[in-house]
Amino acid sequence: MNSSTDSFSFFSRLRLFRRKMASSRHLRLVAGVACFLLVLFLVHPFDSPEPLLNTAPRPDGSRPIAQPVLKPPPRSRRKVTFKPSSFDWTKVDQHFPVGLKHKLPTGTPKPQKPVQHDFSRYVHDPVTLNRQKAVRAVFQRSWNSYKEHAWLRDELAPVSGKGKTTFGGWGATLVDALDTLWIMELWDDFYLAANAAAQLDWQNTTETSANMFETTIRHLGGLLSAYDLSGEQALLDKATELGNMLYMGFDTPNRMPGFWLNFEDAKRGVQVAGTNDPSASPCSLSLEFTRLTQLTGDQRYFDAITRITEFLERTQNESKLPGMWPKLINFREQRVDGESGFTLGALADSLYEYLPKMHALLGGLSPQYEKMHRAAMDVVTKHMLFRPMLPTEEAKKHDILFVGDAFAKPDGIERVAEGQHLTCFTGGMFGLGGKLFDINEHVEIGERLARGCGWAYDAFPTGVMPEIFNMVSCIGSWDAPCPWDEGKWKEEGSKNLKKGFASARDSRYILRPEAIESIFLLYRMTGKEDLRDLAWQMFESIVNATETELAYSAISDVTVKGPTTKTDSMESFWLAETLKYFYLIFSPPNIINLDEYVFNTEAHPFLRPKP
């Protein structure tokens, strides 16, 4: 009996002890969590970072739609602070004011044809991951040298280690690289650069004018894209401030902007449109100004560029090559019949590039962009595409195309088989239009154009393509049989270049992106893995040919065997475009999905509206 009682007492005490210990452990756990949260709050106050998405209503009552694609870890979040410029361009009167004639199209965005290939079975294999890391390392090397030697300057001189002022002194490389920093998940550098960008002073320049085109695609486009990706309100505020300055460029008697925004002329009200300006300049502002209206609700920007769109639509069949616009246009008199040269290269390129892209950005609600694109591409396929004459075995392996120039002459249209690195963007343009408008032949043309540029890289000793080159073209249509003609080759071809080439008229390579741009886009559109191998071959060649002690430089001659001559130039598009496209082609396809984003001509991705 006593032993039974003692046993009961022992186990009762044991259970009581366990309950006390459990309660004590619980209290210690709660106390530990509370202490951790208190420390975290003291180090990173919950109310200090900007919200990832700005939810404040816009002037029209709607809300911004920025959606971060890559969310930084909380400890990498930084507060981005906006600092206004010392001069407010909204205080300057418009000398040729107009009412709002155009507003963003209303209604639900139309369902669009898928642009991106179905990658539902995609696997990010180790080889591709290592290639992605290699591109990122090249970007970091370039960026770190810019930070050390040219911070806040427009460009780094990658041989001498100096800074350059080439675009107003407003940190072109810094702003241009913002979205690349975000995409590559370089969070600390992104927030460092974002704070610098958000405090730029557009009044602080030694220049008397700003290039409307370059400032729009690099600075305005870079700020808008960085906002679309990060949701940082300060970047949109700075973009709006710049948009207000650039909007003054439209203050001319006919609301057509000139090539330059001359600051004093704008204030005095004496600006006029040009009489012999590159067609791409005023006609490639649409994507950026439309996106600015979409994000701010201010319809002035969209109204301004739609007046140019109306001009293009009205004059498309009035040129000497109906369906296209010439290299140079008389915007003051709004005439397109004074020039005989037509191209998809320098002077005109992004005019055509933006037609299908505007269709995508507006959710298919503005049919004139599809109409103009179709009409222009009909002319391009008839008069400008060409096939290089290649030896039989080479032609079997490479079914490629290039796009040349066209000249309107009294006796007909002359096609010139001259290629440019700039025209390599056309592969992506044909592909995008083909996908959006369900033109399968155009996707095939786009792939052949993209592969043609990849082939041209491999054709030179450096593995890099020149700025401008001429080819021995096949006789007749680009889609007709093209037998090798040894006599024609001996008469027209260059003995110093690979068979198919007549000359390398401008043998420089200036770190351009257009070839990898189209190869990336066609990979994302078709899912053909060999395009990635082609891209890697190009990347390795570029790095080998352009590397300096500090970063990477443009070179003077791609035809040399052995060391190349560096020209001490590293334009901002090296970080904004070239390396971004190389990184993306080796990234998982959900990073900047083509059905969610559309790129401006400086590779800045803008969010597309969804149905």
TrEMBL record:
One of its GO terms (molecular function) is calcium ion binding. Pfam families: Glyco_hydro_47. Its cofactor is Ca(2+). InterPro entries: 6hp_glycosidase-like_sf, Glyco_hydro_47, Glycosyl_Hydrolase_47, Seven-hairpin_glycosidases. It is an enzyme of class 3 (hydrolase). Gene3D superfamilies: 1.50.10.10. One of its GO terms (cellular component) is endoplasmic reticulum. Its EC number is 3.2.1.-. This is alpha-1,2-Mannosidase. The keyword Ion transport does not apply. Residues 54-81 are annotated as: Disordered. Belongs to the glycosyl hydrolase 47 family. GO terms for biological process: carbohydrate metabolic process; ERAD pathway.
